[in-house]
Design goal:
Elements (H helix, E strand, L loop, with lengths): L1 H8 L3 H44 L13 H6 L3 H32 L5 H9 L6 H11 L8 H14 L15 E3 L5 E3 L8 E6 L27 E7 L23 E6 L2 E7 L5 E4 L8 E4 L19 H26 L3 H9 L4 H12 L1 H16 L3 H6 L5 H4 L2 H9 L6 H30 L1
Parallel strand pairs: 3-4
Antiparallel strand pairs: 1-2, 2-8, 4-7, 5-6, 5-8
Amino acid sequence: MTATLLKEASPPPVAMADRRRRARRRGRVIALAFVFPALLLLGALVVYPVLFSVGRSFFDASGTRFVGGDNYTEMFRDPATLKAVRNTAIWVVVAPALLTGLGLILAVLVEKVRWATAFKLLLFMPMAVSFLAAGIIFRLAYDEDPDKGVLNAAVVSVHDAFKGTSSYPTARARDGQGLTKGADGSYGTTAAASPGHTVDLGLVGILPKDLPQGARPAYPAAAQQAAVDEIRGVAYLDFTRGGGGQQGKVDRQESGLPEMKVEAVRDGKTVASTTTADDGSFRFQGLGSGSYTVRLPASNFAPPYQGVSWLGPALVTPAIIGAYLWIWTGFAMVLIGAGLAALPRDALEAARIDGANEWQIFRRITVPLLGPVLTVVFVTLVINVMKVFDLVYIIAPGPVQEDATVLATQMWLVSFGGGNNQGLGSALGVLLLLLVIPAMVFNVRRFRGSQR
């Protein structure tokens, strides 16, 4: 009787199933209500622009005439677009590989550093700098003027330390004052000089403040009698501060030109060379009889070394990639460091007990175990470099903009930067989307696989 009463009191199965369906339906409605704002934004900011760009790519520049696939055909005939594709390929191959390698090396090394957290913070800080600000920073750092660009200042300092630099890049001789300029930029005496004679080599075009330290007043070479086997002379600044003096003559107010190389030339060959003293004086000893030309080599007047043209056509893309590495190395290091912290330590300790050195452990245990993390970092960076725009647009100067252009900048230039052809620009956008999608799909599948 009790069983009968319980059976009568329990709800029929049909009512239970209907109640469950209503509960599921209500749950879907509530979930959809919460998701709807996000879906609305996704549709407005992603889906609609993608569909509009695909449709717009089949119309001409005005957007009124349907041209089919003409924009896609023109896209691959345009030399600028082909150069953008080439530069994008360079970015995809070089930047992610370098960043992944640097991130791996730094993540492994940071584990052995006492102040690891501070070191990671310093490397990650560039991520807080916007691409606009980073582009301005590196545009200044790459400036060709050594007085502005820090990289060229370092390069010039190293160059001058090993090879030296000319002290008189602006010096020149007065016309008709006994010196003739050669085709190579050197200056030689117009009249031949013989042993026992003296020569005065007057130059202008040098500001007194630019004279080397230690320069002393010049003395006329004739004031000292030359021996029968020597030629004496003086190189001096033929300019008297405040006016006065006589051209072609050494006045007591005029300075000598120290550290200037002087050569004695006979029959086109250099037979003797020397360097001027602090007062500009020099002498050649042990000369045989005959006529000589006293020459100031072109090295005395060589323009100063200006460094490397970092933003020239040949180096602009590697230079921009360098700026990108500065920003993203910390990102790669932190992600790989997180994967490194999750590695099973027993495998590493077992390898050490078996006698493996640190390089063998790194190559045969650490890198293989980090394979999934390295792949995710690499693919994420591939997606990112395909969309790089800010750095290229800001760092590359106008004359070399085309040499540094990538697909994202080319799309903007064609659409809004003077081309005003949004049909062709939309086709470039679709091409960029098609290139990014495979990497995105691979990354999503990899992420789902790791979640399982």
